[in-house]
Write a structure and sequence with these properties.
Elements (H helix, E strand, L loop, with lengths): L1 E5 L2 E5 L4 E4 H4 L15 H9 L7 E2 L5 E2 L8 E5 L3 H6 L9 E3 L6 E2 L2 E6 L5 E2 L2 E7 L15 E8 L2 E2 H4 L7 H4 L6 E8 L11 E6 L2 E7 L7 H11 L7 E3 L21 E6 L3 E9 L8
Bound molecules: zinc ion (ZN).
């Protein structure tokens, strides 16, 4: 199934532009908050399997919000594709390199993002994992069963802020407002034929900037969940941004950064795409 936020309400997608409102279809058993179901994941999936789909609602992509709008924790992984480590001039780490994107940076699939001053905002398309069951000390072989589903994310990164000071500040540099767009929905694993090998990429104004496959992750989704769960307890509704393939702007010669009026489209095979329009803070007009 595809789980979405439509007008801020928890919804199940049933067609190209149709859905059911979970709160109404369940006669109030489940509340309207899209974040709420992950704490009741088994109960929710059991209900959804036989849910009454008689009362359909119409939606457009403009109605979609962040499908997981308020996770307690967001994990993000650096240098998790070897070609991206290569372009960064760094060796592949021996263990996952972990930082956070603060939840206030989350937004939905179709957004306008204000570029911070400095002109060094970069793109990073990523597969994003949504945790469905509490995970502590989990073996890799059990990891997928702790995943509710997958979504598309952009790990937008202001490189000046990220690398400011004697110790890089990844978490701040990647948490400006709107810097964590996600969506268009969460797709559960039963709808994805091979969640370990999905093509992903992004374009700017129609030009391909990144293209990769998740089979090339240095640390796979099960490996990330297992490793993270040895230190922290992963909670239902948490997000893991799994890392970006090669092709970011900061490592190009000359460097390329997002600029006013750019349209950034990011996608993952079998899930969907998200679209961000970039504007300058000094601009009062939306180019779209
Ligand atoms: Zn990233």
């Amino acid at each position: 199934m595809k789980i979405a936020s439509i007008g801020g309400r928890l919804s199940l997608i049933t067609g190209v532009s149709t859905a059911i409102d979970v709160n109404k279809a369940s006669d109030g058993v489940f509340c309207t908050d899209p974040q709420s179901i992950y704490a009741r994941w088994d109960e929710f999936t059991a209900w959804a399997a036989t849910a009454d789909r008689a009362e359909q609602i119409e939606f457009t992509t403009a109605d979609l919000g962040a499908p997981v709008p308020a996770p307690q924790q967001i994990f993000a992984i650096g240098l998790n594709y070897s070609e991206h480590a290569d372009e960064s001039g760094l060796t592949v780490p021996e263990a996952p390199t972990v930082f956070t994107k603060f939840p206030s940076s989350l937004s939905g699939p179709i957004t306008t993002v204000t570029l911070p001053p400095g002109g060094n905002t970069d793109w990073e398309v990523e597969l994003v994992v949504v945790i469905g069951r509490t995970a502590s000390q989990i073996a890799e072989s059990e990891a997928w069963s702790h995943v509710a589903g997958l979504t598309v994310g952009q790990d937008l990164s202001e490189r000046n802020a990220q690398f400011f000071g004697p110790i890089p500040q990844f978490s701040l540099g990647k948490s400006f407002p709107g810097f964590s767009p996600t969506g268009p929905w969460v797709v559960t694993l039963d709808e994805i034929s091979n969640p370990s090998d999905l093509e992903l990429g992004c374009t700017i104004n129609g030009k391909q900037m990144q293209l990769g496959r998740t089979r090339d992750l240095v640390f796979s989704v099960p490996s990330l969940i297992s490793t993270l769960s040895t230190t922290v307890t992963l909670l239902p509704g948490d997000l893991i941004f799994t890392g970006t393939p090669a092709g970011v702007g900061v490592m190009r010669d000359p460097k390329v950064f997002l600029k006013h009026g750019d349209t950034l489209v990011s996608w993952v095979e079998g899930i969907g795409e998200i679209t961000q329009t970039l504007i300058d803070a000094t601009s009062s007009s939306n180019p779209s």
